[in-house]
Prior knowledge:
The protein is of the alpha+beta class and 272 residues long. It has helices spanning 6-20, 39-49, 96-105, 115-125, 139-152, 155-161, 172-183, 250-271; strands at 31-38, 66-74, 168-171, 188-194, 199-209, 215-216, 235-238. Strands 1, 2, 4, 5 and 6 form a five-stranded antiparallel sheet that branches.
Amino acid sequence: MKMQHFPLLVFVLFITLVYLNGGNRTIEWDVIVFTQQWVLTYCHIFRLTNETHKCNLQTLLPEQYWKVHGIWPTKVGTMGPNDCKYVNFTIDRFNREGRHYLEKMWTHIDAKNTSEQLWKNEWMKHGSCSLEIEQLQDQYYYLAQGMAWWRDFQLYRILEEQGVLPGAEYPLGNITGAIKKTIGKEVDTRCYYDEHTKTVFLNEILICFDKNLTLINCDLMQKKKKLDCGKEWDMVTYPDVVPQLYYESGATGKLLSFVHLFLSVIVSWLFN
């Protein structure tokens, strides 16, 4: 080995060891955020990136459309921390029945991917930051806690019992107020603003816990503009079907859809 390469090798080795050991740094966060996602909105967002995307919705009943997104240790006012320490992932401790229920509650909506990929991503990105919590100390506990909270906080039923049903739009305060009336704490929300249709779709409900996993009020403050649901009086759509893409509805939409299809055929013919 040439000596001039030795310092570079030492640097690479150092960075690798820091990554594997999590840097022995203090991981700072304030709350645990349990996030459920309304899959009809998520599917719409997914299709907007590419209309050929297929969503894994065929086997779901309406009351199952609220799915676990993740359990996120969060520093209030930020979107992290993430990827705090290198961790392994395996679901070997779940038997066949356990995996079935996990799939039911924590589903990857992308039909081309498995839910196991989603569980792995959530565990490595977020679970790696919560290892200090006994109930979240490994991937088995992390996933099992997600299932337990999903059973405890049945958002479809909670909203339905307060008269908030899919297929309509509501003031944001009606949605959050309905949940608070049942669980006794404030929740946070994430929406998706469709700039083509000028519609705000309900996307996620966030429920917060302290480090003892005691339910607390949730006000994370940090929101990207497109995720912001607005003020409590602003109207939010709670869809009962996957919303149409902007070029799929109306006479103009049908024309644009035809043009889009025609161009796709031409491009395919030219390059195949």
